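Supplementary Note 3. Input sequence used for the single-chain structure prediction.
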Amino acid sequence: MSVQRNRGAGEDLGYRTDGLAAISACRLVRRLWRRPYDAFVSRYNSAGQLNFSRFLGGGGDDTGYNVAVDPYGNAYFVGMTFSSNFPLANATQWSHGGSSDAFVTKLNSSGGIVFSTFLGGSGIENAFGVAVDSSQHIWIGGRTGSTNFPLQYSLLPYRGGPTDAFVSRYVFNGSGYGYDFGTYLGGSDSEVVYGLGIDPWGRVWISGQTFSYNWPVTPDAFQSTRPGSYAGFLSRIDYYGWYSYGFDSYFPEGDPVGYQASRLAIAPDGTIYVTGDRYGYNRGMWLTKVSP
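The predicted structure, written as discrete structure tokens, is reproduced below.
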């Protein structure tokens, strides 16, 4: 793999080839300031006309952080909920586990809920990243403070720091979803996943931020030691009938300042674009291209 970096050019990147309508998602203040707020989802067609717009939430605060679409017009929405009565459908976790749980919700092209579930343990969870493949399998990632986060074929069987990153996978069986994979990711300090993407070979790439000096890097890492007090990371999880680390590195290579790898996008040829923030004396945004 080769890497090209461009500082000062950071922005969230998207790569679209399917011509589906754009989907927007963020949180919305539903009532007055300091009152509970809901997430919302809106869908626009290719002419910019609004197809639908709906609230998504319960009696507590609910926030949407990211959205993905599949070739069939379905939208996959992730975020954080404080609502014990968040709208669920065909869930893999029906009970609200902690003060806040992650959620993943699948909407059809009309805005109807097809699948919606909590994800979390007894602590705090946030889901920031989501990716979906052509078989409608869902990958999500974020942050967990739970020691009893739902694990399945986990690469790390325990929470290593105050909060760990997590990655989970839901497998579509043609009529519903099963919880197929859930793992902690991290070292002895705090981590979070912000971005996910699936390359043409079905491998899942993950970007985020770590404060750990002992983030589990692989031998082919771009950078094997943490360059500053905290750093971005770029990781890959492979699935060939079992789950394994395919690649893991502090990211990007560079100066002894703080980095955060916020978002990534993958082109049809497998090229990966990662963007994030750089802190310290020369703070700003950065953009890096990783060739397969």
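The radius of gyration is 18 Å. The chain has no helices and 19 strands.
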